[in-house]
Amino acid sequence: MISCPTFLLSCYFFIVPLADTTPPVIRFCPVSILTLNVPPGVIYRTATWTEPTATDNSGVTPTVMQSHHPGDTFLVGTTEVTYRFSDMAGNSALCRFTVAVGRLREIEFETCFFVNIIKLSKT
Q1: 7-11, 14-18, 62-66, 108-112: which range is least confident on average?
Q2: Which residues are CB-neighbours of 54 under 8 A, at least 6 positions away?
Q3: How many other C-beta atoms can be found within 10 angstroms of the C-beta atom of residue 37?
Q4: Hey, where are the domains in the chain?
Q5: Which of 87, 89, 112, 117 is the Cys-Cys partner for 20 at CB 3.0 to 4.6 Å?
């Protein structure tokens, strides 16, 4: 509270902070499952994606904590990837998607390899 004395009058100003309850807004969160295949005998694959970003109504870039990074390797199976964006008021927004790594069946791999050899030999 600030008082402003003048001749016979006083004025008071009250500063009332407004609570920020709006979470950050996420952009570019992958909506589909990333599916990667590996040939027989291989147990992992490197995955890449466009990283999500976020903006906040405060104008300050939110902080981000993420479980994985583009270029990480993933074992055969499914892995959930999460990004949590937080603003200075403690509001947060979550982006999550799944990376699935599967094995090609032996016959599919041999057929694919054979077709590629034929294509290479014709050029």
Answers
A1: 108-112
A2: 24, 25, 26, 27, 61, 62, 64, 85, 93
A3: 16
A4: 23-106
A5: 89
Whether residue 94 has pLDDT greater than 90: yes
Determine the residue type at 96: R
CA angle 14/10/15 to nearest 5° reads: 5
User: Would you say 84 and 92 are in contact if contact means Cβ atoms under 8 Å apart?
Assistant: yes
Residue found under tokens 């699935």: 100
Residue 57 forms beta bridges with which residues?
Answer: none
User: Which range, of 38-42, 73-77, 101-105, averages the lowest pLDDT?
Assistant: 101-105
Residues 6+ apart with CB under 8 A from 91: 20, 21, 22, 23, 24, 56
Token pair listed for 71: 């270029």
Q: What are phi and psi of 13, to 5 degrees?
A: -115, 130
Q: What is the pTM of this model?
A: 0.71
